[in-house]
Amino acid sequence: MIKAIKKLFLKKEVIFLIGVAVIFLLLHSTPNTALRTKVFFMGYPKAALTSAIIDDVYHNEVDKDKFAELNAKAYTLTKPPIETATQGELRNYLVRRFVFLYFAEYYGEG
């Protein structure tokens, strides 16, 4: 009886871990989803779901060599969230590619 319970618990644990891994892979499978995931977890779900994402032409041109080394590209939110502490727009993000996954980070205005 105990072995059956342990097997069932282990099976549920494995299914849960596989589910978490699949969700992680889906949320980081494209630059857009990685960026939306980042903004969502920064605490701006409305902006993450409603803002359009466009290429940041200026930063991609100015920092072309740096971005090539980082395997990255800059993107801009058209309706960026406003940071409450500074009232600044969180508009520009850098999305890096690692193998087949993408990870976003806030890039700032500079």
Share of β-strand residues: 15-25%
Question: What's the overall geometry?
Answer: elongated
Helix percentage: 40-55%
Radius of gyration: 19 Å
Order of helices and strands: HHHEHHEEE
| Total beta strands | 4
Distance between the termini: 63 Å
Number of domains: 1
Overview of the structural elements:
The protein is of the alpha+beta class and 110 residues long. It has one domain. 51% of the residues lie in helices and 20% in strands. Strands 1-2-3-4 form a 4-stranded antiparallel β-sheet. It is elongated.
Layout of strands and helices, then pairs:
Layout: H1 2-27, H2 31-41, H3 45-50, E1 53-55, H4 57-62, H5 64-70, E2 72-77, E3 92-98, E4 101-106
Compact description:
The chain is built from 5 helices and 4 strands, in the order H-H-H-E-H-H-E-E-E.
